[in-house]
Design goal:
Elements: H1 2-17, E1 41-52, E2 58-73, E3 79-88, E4 96-105, E5 109-114, E6 117-123, E7 131-133, E8 144-156, E9 159-171, E10 178-187, E11 191-202, E12 214-229
Antiparallel strand pairs: 1-2, 1-12, 2-3, 3-4, 4-5, 5-6, 7-8, 8-9, 9-10, 10-11, 11-12
Amino acid sequence: MKFFAGFLSSMVFLALMSCDSGDDAGVPDKGYRYFPLTVGHYQLYDVVEITYTLRDPDTARYTLQVKTVDVFVDAAGDSTYVLYRSKRLPGEAAWTYLDTWSARRTADALIVQEENTPYVKLRFPPYDGQVWNGNLYNSGEAEDYRLDSLGQGQIRGGQHFDDCLTVLQRDNKDFIVFLDQQKEVYAAGIGLIYKETTQLSYCTQPSCLAQQLVEQGIIYKQWLKEYGKTE
């Protein structure tokens, strides 16, 4: 399949840029628990996606499934995990394939490749106020990610999670021209439990300036509803 050919080419890039992820046993706690990597691990999320155009906003609701299906090990012993993503609309039984991502945890970073673009999602060990370039391994401009909270309990999707960290990827608070806020929340032993993206372009004509009239954009929210491990 064509998506698999593209995925294999991305594996070469990841193998060149990172160091040994190693085994967790017998090493100091570096925060690896916030993104466990095991073949068979799966997560189900409720997703609400609101798309704004010049017409009325369109709202889509669906269930997203992320499943760790395979692992590749290179000659140096480094591991890259393959993540299949699929969606299911309300009332449907069958899953529809979306795309293939990958995740690689090095000694000091978690790199998630979203299709063909790698992002540094976390740095290890995490600490309050930590800042890093999320676009370090892609061609985008430098983007400061900031660890906003660490080791705190949170309620997401009606569930309580004891040990979480929150990463602010963007937080410009511009309510005049373009609002761009993105964050992700990770829980110990589970991984990603919440994701939110708000990107809204406002009308800037004199007749509507500063009225927060959305011309185009998206609000995306993703909550964990279930997780586990298949045999």
